[in-house]
Amino acid sequence: MNLLYPMKFEPVFKDKIWGGNKIKTDLGLDFSPLPNCGEVWALSGVNENTSVVSNGFLEGNELNELIEIYMGDIVGDAVYEKFGTEFPLLIKFIDANDYLSIQVHPDDELAEKRKIGYGKSEMWYIIQADENAELISGFNCKTDKNSYLKHLENKNLKQILNHEKVTKGDVFYIPAGRVHALGPGLLLAEIQQTSDTTYRIYDWDRVDDKGNPRQLHIDEALDAIDFTLHNDYKTHYEQKLNKTTHLIETPFFTTNILNFNQLIEKDYEELDSFVIYTCVEGNCKLNYNSESLDFKKGEVVLLPAECNKIQLKALNECKLLETYIVL
User: Fold this and answer.
1) Do residues 135 and 166 touch, judged by C-beta distance below 8 A?
2) Which residues contact 41 (CB under 8 A, 6 or more apart)?
3) What pLDDT score was predicted for residue 32?
4) Model-level pTM?
């Protein structure tokens, strides 16, 4: 008989200079103690920010400690062989009440060279967007290092960046190396590699409450930036009710969306990985063996690799992001 079960976790709240109050008002996580809560780390294996189980007999245990004990039973044999006791993905909810810094993340190769762990590729699912909300992803014209540095020096970098108007349900994949920034009026779920490395390129000349500008990483970022111009930066998909719709498939994670209003069954017997459910709308019950677990918008559930057959029952129309790793 399997010992493991679907797990929920205590959220970790992060105060940000650009944060707002939608994590309280829209996600219903009204126990956040922070005045400008910009992020909730809903599932994390990052050192000093490791998620703690909040349900079942493993309540109070840290995620990485559990991986040390249960190994492949919790993350999958191939995942454990590659990542060991470090959980390989980080799930966040982000409330951008102002522009985030224009930034870029290193890829795995550069991160290894700089001895900073893994790189950081990520995806965004827009949960809510104010009217005329936008974000920045990539460049809008052919650009090289010299042109980029000239625009940066003249404080008109924004002119060569690609701006996207954003609405609820939009999906963007931000691979390592892509310059990006969230704009004000956005609430989203972020799925990323386990890394907390961000190179800030420009921060809109903001200062903190002591009058000091935030640290920039101009030199570190230069070798990380991918200057490739793309015709389209948005992920397009056609959502179907009570069907699993593919969104993103990368070497780092695969993410689908489940939009359902009835009982659906999932069988992961052929998948050698954990599964993460991130609820972005509505609420549902997850049934496993004789147990059931309620979860709702703003919550995340980790399905251990050995828990391969479950049922999901919508309590109203519900949307879940389904994420796992294929190696």
Assistant:
1) yes
2) 11, 12, 14, 49, 51, 90, 91, 92
3) 66
4) 0.97
Give pLDDT tens digits for 235-272.
Answer: 999 989 999 999 999 999 999 999 999 999 999 999 99
Task: Quote the mean pLDDT of the chain.
Answer: 96
Burial class (CB in 10 A: 0-12, 13-18, 19+), 159: exposed
CA atoms of 312 and 310, how far apart (whole Å): 7
The top-level CATH class assigned to 12-235 is mainly beta
Cα(185)–Cα(165) distance, rounded to whole angstroms?
A: 11
DSSP annotation of 36 reads: T
Residue type, 201: I
**Amino acid in the structure at residue 117:** G
Q: What counts of helices (H) and strands (E) characterise the chain? A: 7, 21
Of 151-165, 198-212, 246-260, which gets the smallest average pLDDT? 198-212
Alpha helix (H) residue ranges in the chain = 22-25, 63-70, 72-75, 77-83, 108-113, 145-153, 218-222
| Three-state SS at 260 | strand
Q: Taking the domains of the chain in order of start, what are their residue ranges?
A: 12-235, 243-324
243-324: CATH topology: Jelly Rolls (2.60.120)
Known catalytic residues are 200
pLDDT at residue 209 tops 90: no
**Are the folds of 12-235 and 243-324 the same?**
yes
Strands (E), 22-168: 37-43, 89-96, 102-104, 122-129, 134-139, 161-165
